[in-house]
Amino acid sequence: MPDNPARNQAVVFDLDDTLYAERDYVLSGYGAVSEYLSDDPARAARMRMWLWERFLGGRAGGAFDALNENFSLGLEARKIAELVEVYRNHSPRIAPRAGIPRLLEKLHRGSRLGIISDGFLPAQKLKLDALGIAGHFDAVIFTEALGRESWKPSPDGFQAFCKELQLDAANCTYVADNPAKDFAAPNTLGWRTVQLLLDGQIHSRKPAPTGGEAQIIVKSIDELESTVDPTG
Q: Cβ contacts of residue 209 below 8 Å, gap of 6+?
């Protein structure tokens, strides 16, 4: 049972690697780019798997420059930039984490629900659409819509959420995955913060800045439910 049910008057989630596995989005994006580059399904599959194995090896940055070089595609910088746009604007093949739709449905009976998420705006909207869970949320704050300077660790998204739903920070809980940026602002504002720590997350082991550690760490959706469900 949560330590203080009033803390869960609103439960707010990060999107990437919290409500779904970000690795799934990466693989989906690599598929979209590979299919854009080649009409040959076998060649597209080879490019997709090469990108994916590179990613699994810890090399995420410069993916399309590396693809260009490895497959001798002869792409100019303008075309590489076009691939980035294909990645960001594709309709992703992703799904909520197991147990998340049920949890959201249950929580919404007693709490206001929200999302506060960074990222390029069209991509974030497409992700939420693909997940099919948008109807559970009373407010969705994509910080890109407030301006790039409002990405976390800026407090802007958290303040905007409280203003939109007329809530006190002391009655809000934030659930996210990345200690490097997710928890510093809500901690300072007086929110309760919960890190969902699961295998396979991309950023969950990054070091937190001073004051940026989550107040609570949970390691399963069931443990998260027992922490944020105001009905116990």
A: 153, 180, 184
Counting every residue written for the chain, the total comes to 232
d(CA 152, CA 48): 31
What does the alpha-carbon distance between residue 101 and residue 59 come to, in Å, rounded to a whole number?
32
* Angle of the 77-89 helix axis to the 22-37 helix axis, nearest 10: 130
Q: What is the pLDDT of residues 57-89, one digit of tens each?
A: 999 899 999 999 999 999 999 999 999 999 999
Task: Tell me the average pLDDT of the chain.
Answer: 95
Q: Is the pTM of this model over 0.85?
A: yes
Domain segments of the chain as ranges: 5-21+94-228, 23-89
Question: Which value, to the nearest 10 degrees, does the dihedral of the CA atoms of residues 51, 54, 58, 62 take?
Answer: -60
Q: Return d(Cα 102, Cα 113) in angstroms, integer.
A: 13
Q: What is the CATH number of domain 5-21+94-228?
A: 3.40.50.1000
* 3-state secondary structure (DSSP) of residue 60: coil
